[in-house]
Specification:
It is a single chain. The chain is mainly beta. It has a single domain, classed as Immunoglobulin-like (Sandwich), CATH 2.60.40. 0% of the residues lie in helices and 51% in strands. Strands 1-8-7-4-5 form a five-stranded mixed beta sheet, with no helix packed on it. The protein is elongated and about 50 Å long.
Length: 110
């Protein structure tokens, strides 16, 4: 798998009461292979097939996705059992084998 930094990830993880709220915005073209460019040629398929969320190095959520997800998808989760200072890591893998990851530390409730 190759890391693809041309599609950045925006990630935020914060505590709201006893819940960890994770929000992530993946920059990705999410082409389903059916659209055409200006010259009428099909645009090759390129879409996220897997999303993963890790808490302190352990996978807690893994989602299988497909070509029906919109461009630059936004994902959000609410989890229990996390605390300020924990490490959250999220990433995606696409149908071409590219992947990207982002990591942050859980912020305390303001």
């Amino acid at each position: 798998m190759s890391q693809n930094s041309s599609y950045p990830i925006r990630l935020r993880a914060s505590l709201e009461g006893d819940a960890l709220v994770v929000k992530t915005l993946f920059s990705h073209p999410m082409e389903n292979g059916l659209a055409k460019d200006e010259a009428g040629r099909l645009i090759a398929a390129r879409y996220i097939t897997q999303v993963q969320l890790q808490l302190n190095g352990q996978t807690v959520i893994q989602v299988e996705t497909g070509s029906g997800v919109a461009k630059d998808p936004l994902f959000g989760w609410r989890l229990k059992g996390a605390k300020a200072g924990d490490t959250v890591r999220v990433g995606w893998r696409d149908n071409r084998g590219d992947e990207n990851w982002a990591e942050t530390v859980v912020r305390p409730t303001p």
